[in-house]
Amino acid sequence: MNYLVDIILIALSAAVINNFVLYYFVGICPFIGVSRRVDMAFGMGCAVTFVISIAAFLSWTITTMVLIPGAPLSSFVGGFFMSKEAAATIDLTVLSYIVYIFSIASSVQFVEMYVRKFFPALYKSFGVFLPLITTNCAILFACLTIMNNVVGVENPADVWDLGRSLILALFGGIGFTIAIVIMSGIREDLDLCDVPEPFKGAAITLVVGGILALAFMGFTGVDSGLKKAMTKTQETAIVISAQPSLHTAMVEEFNRGGMGK
Amino acid sequence: MADQPTASERFLQGILPENPVYRQLLGLCPTLAVTNGMQPAITMAVSVAFVLVCANLVISLIRNLLKPHLRIVIFTLTIATFVTIADKVLAAYLYQMSKTLGPYIPLIIVNCIIICRCEVCASKQSPFIAVSDALGQSIGFGLALSSIAAVREILGTGGLFGVQLLPAAWPDWVIMVLPPGAFITLGLLLGFVNWLSMRKKGGRI
Amino acid sequence: MPDMKSIFETNLGQAWLVLLLAIIFGSSLAGVQAALGPKIEENKLKETLEKVPIVILGQTAADELKSKDQHLTITPNTVSVARQGVTKFYTLYRADFADGTTAGWVAKTKGQGYADRIELLVGMDQDGGRVTGLFILDQKETPGLGNKIVEDAWRAQYSDKSTSTPFTVVKLPRGGENEIDAISGATISSDAVTNLVNQAVSDLKHRVAELKTSEPEGAN
User: Are C166 and A234 a contacting pair at CB < 8 A?
Assistant: First the structure.
């Protein structure tokens, strides 16, 4: 139950509240470049979601199995050259970035082969955009977020497992798709408007993107509210006895007419 | 080979005419993310400069050994290595700034500016020219970041580098240091730069 | 034979550069890690440990201690609290004076704020009877609003308060015990911090008594 709550919050946060494009500023280049038509934008979004999920799977697996101190593979191989204790301290996390970028490149290659084989029409319309997904910040950002929640986490209970990582990646991609599709819808209409010459192209797209980000800011705090609502049943059952709960105090205060700051 | 730009041309081109942010529209991710204050912006510009210069230098030194199929792999490997070094140095000596910049330092790896310069210049010209190109582009990038950061920080907090400049009565436009402010500032400044260059070319607005 | 040679040319022949570079870069990175890794770890730890005296003793007393060139000995403990199948881990630091008496305890805890996670240190006195202070380590709340939780004046509301009553967030202080005045426009941030503090205090104040008389547990 707690795991499900966690997953829902991560998903909602990645897709909407802390949207990859509109809050973390990753994936801006295709956001501005590819978002002219809704169908192209949707296709791009799906491709990115696909790549991001595969890349996240690869990153999490390699990080947990090879890079962190005490990882199974590194201690196994190290065990041949040194004592078991020394092998358990081999820390390969300095190679993280190199490993991630290559797993992203491989994921893109894999997806490209897959699309070329099974969706040739789609492949033709995409053209050069597919390899360019390698330089999409959003994918590396997802890998880095996963790394931050796996490496160097003080609390062993907080370390992310594969499920959470994949959910972050998947819904991050979905959030990217949402943003880029909305943007392309707006741009299709913008093409019919009378935009001043210096602003045509990227400049007006950025300003509109800013207004879109403003709209999405309205979602801030939804996850903390949801978390409170979903875990309330557990919280009230804790050991504190005969203590007024926070909400009781605030309700009393409201009844006394004390709100209004 | 004779009509390739010289070192000084490369250097000067990178600052304004071929400015990576305003003209080439590359590297927009860090531009939006770290420009909510002058300090993070300058730190990011210096880090990008370090990676760009080192990567250009190394690629230029081995340019004759590069084969068409594997050159992207080699570019990526080189860039990722230097970014890791920059990240570790920042975490060791400027820990607070490293925490503020967060994931945006590793994101330099996929910053289009660096791969673009390696492809266009470093893989084809001598180390000296490659380094001047890198320096020019870095200065251009730094100028772009500073211009956006200056606007956002002054309007958003009333000061620069944490020093209060505007009178205390100024109601901080908090939105400027938040994501929407980044988009809108960059969009407006980009429009302004386009307008300037159109005027220069003598065209009608 | 020509086929073998051309295969060698196209694949292995080109890959040697990649492998060579990988080895060179890999070793230089290992060198960087060896040189800077310890310093980075030190930075992370220092960030917390530097604040421990201030959270327990207050800024003036801590400064006094430092000027006399005395230090508190800080021992970290990992405390796990199990509740309805969910285990939460706290890092609990015990700070001792030079003569061995316990100055106090500092718990590091993390939780969801308004915009993102908030990480904070909450200090208790040696018996776990009073909350001595609060320090926000990490937050990403709204600048100008929720951001104000880091301000000294607001945090001072948590100093020298009893642990027998949980803190409550109110908008108009009535002078009740352990009332925290909410930041105007940032009730959720104020709420989040107060909840974190209450949770940590209620979980740990009894553990403190157990740990005080026993040898400190090593960090798990």
Answer: no
